[in-house]
Structures are given as C-alpha cells and as structure tokens.
Specification:
The structure is a single chain. By secondary structure, this protein is an alpha+beta fold. 36% of the residues lie in helices and 27% in strands. The chain has helices at 8-13, 15-26, 30-43, 75-83, 86-93, 113-124, 143-150, and strands at residues 2-6, 50-55, 61-69, 96-104, 129-135, 154-160, 169-175, 188-189. Strands 6-7-5-4-3-2-1-8 form an eight-stranded mixed β-sheet, with helices on both faces. A hairpin with an 8-residue loop joins strand 6 (154-160) and strand 7 (169-175). The longest helix is centred in the N-terminal third of the chain and has 14 residues, at 30-43. The radius of gyration is 16 Å and the shape is globular. The model has no long low-confidence stretch (mean pLDDT 92).
C-alpha cells in the first residue's frame, strides 16, 4: 500500500473511485452518493484544501481523506457554529482545518490505513485547530472512534443532528499542529 498526497485535480480525476470508497465505508444509498459527488467536486477548490490517498500496488484506491479551512457560509461549518456557544466558537472555529472525509474500504480496514491518512492530513493542515464529525457509536467497538481518540480528539458536540441525516453525530476536535512524521514517513506526491 502506498500513501500519496493528492492535488485537487488528482481527486477529481479519481472521483468515481472516491465516491465508491465513500459509499462502501458509510453504507449510503446510491441517491445520496450522487449528491455527495457534486459536493466533493466543489470542496477541492476551498482554501487550505489537502488530500491524501491510499493506493494498492496496482493503483486501486483503498482509502482517501481530505479537508480544508472552514469558513462562514460553508454548510458544515455553519451547522456547527450555530450549535456552539461564543467561547467554543472562538476556540474551535477561528482558524480551523475541517477533516471533511476520511474513509477506507471495509476489506482494507484494520491495517493502519486510516491512521496513516489522518496523520498525513493533520501534518499538512493549515490552522490552529481541527474538527471532524463521525456517527455516534460505541467508542470501544468503533474503529473510527478509537482512531480519533488515539490522535487526541476530544468531544466538542455529542449526539448532534445534521439536517438531512437521522443519525446522531459526534463533533470532535484537537489542537494543531500535529508533530511531523519521521523522515520518510509522510505521504509521497501523487504519481503523474
């Protein structure tokens, strides 16, 4: 498996693969995936955009992650902003890198790909804080929750409901920067 940095064009070029991995990892219906395709294509142009991908030796996409700097007028940012008090807004949203998506195909989960992707994203991220949301789950049973706790993410909001999704979510955050990986431990640039 190879971890690579992706440019916006790299992600758009592999958008079908990205949407397929997203659908497998989240278990979303096909109609929701088509809506996400459009959102993802617009996200790549946001300030501070960073992306990584886990590729097999054959070049197949096993996982990906991306994020960008949050700002007023962005749907997720505005939902979280409304739910926080003034002090929490100042603390967490002033210069925040939002981890928007972080997914690994289910057969490839449990082998450190998600941790590598998250470490790479947070190492490359601009901002003084980072936030993400994840469906509520048993923290001891959920690989995602265990991963985020290992990376020092703390509770910002719990059992939060985003419009259009009946599931409750946790919004988690941590300070940046994340210490840089050892030499040679970061993602390689994407192959041309």
């Amino acid at each position: 498996m190879r971890l690579v940095r992706w440019t916006p064009d790299d992600l758009v070029r592999r958008l079908d693969d990205v949407v397929a991995v997203y659908g497998e990892a989240m278990g979303y219906r096909a109609d929701l995936l088509e809506a996400r395709r459009g959102y993802i294509a617009t996200h790549v142009r946001r300030p501070g955009f960073r992306a990584v991908a886990s590729l097999t030796r054959e070049g197949h996409l096993a996982g990906f992650g991306y994020g960008y700097l949050g700002a007023a007028g962005q749907w997720w940012h505005d939902q979280v902003h409304r739910a926080l008090d003034t002090e929490a807004r100042q603390r967490w949203l002033t210069h925040c890198f939002e981890v928007v998506e972080l997914h690994v195909r289910p057969p490839a989960q449990g082998h450190g790909l998600g941790a590598g992707q998250l470490r790479a994203l947070l190492t490359m991220a601009e901002g003084t804080t980072t936030l993400l949301s994840t469906p509520e789950a048993d923290e001891q049973q959920s690989r995602a929750w265990r991963l985020y706790r290992r990376f020092g993410f703390v509770d910002i909001l719990r059992n939060f409901h985003f419009p259009g999704d009946e599931r409750p979510f946790g919004v988690l955050g941590r300070d940046l920067p994340l210490a840089s990986p050892a030499p040679g431990g970061g993602p390689a640039p994407a192959a041309p």
